[in-house]
Amino acid sequence: MINLNLAGLDFVMTALFIVLFTEQLKNARTQRDALIGLAFAIICLLFCNKNVFLLVTLVTLVALFSLNYLITRRKNDIN
């Protein structure tokens, strides 16, 4: 019923990722989180199938950053 032409979408998504990454690097107080994300993306690309690496990377980063948030919050609550 709906015919979508998705030609060029991969280029648009890559460009969007690059723009978001560079904005994160410019605006953050530290670049640690952005560089961790880039490192995990490269690691997952090397070790995972290219069809699922994005999903694996996102799940891993959400878990890692959530754990970091909980640990930081707990340290602040203790002090």
Number of strands: 0
Radius of gyration: 17 Å
Calculate the mean pLDDT score and round it.
86
How much helical structure, as a percent, in the residues? over 70%
Class by alpha and beta content = mainly alpha
Unreliable spans are none
Helix and strand pattern: HHH
The number of helices is: 3
Q: Whole-Å distance between the termini?
A: 59 Å
Could you tell me the strand content as a percent range?
A: under 5%
Q: Which word captures the global form?
A: elongated
Q: Features of this protein?
A:
single chain, 79 residues
Question: Can you walk through the features of this model?
Answer:
The radius of gyration is 17 Å and the shape is elongated. By secondary structure, it is an all-alpha fold. The chain has three helices and no strands. The longest helix has 26 residues.
Task: Write a compact overview of the structure shown.
The protein is mainly α and 79 residues long. The protein has helices at 9-27, 32-47, 53-78.
How are the secondary structure elements laid out?
Blueprint: H1 9-27, H2 32-47, H3 53-78
Helix pairs in contact: 2-3
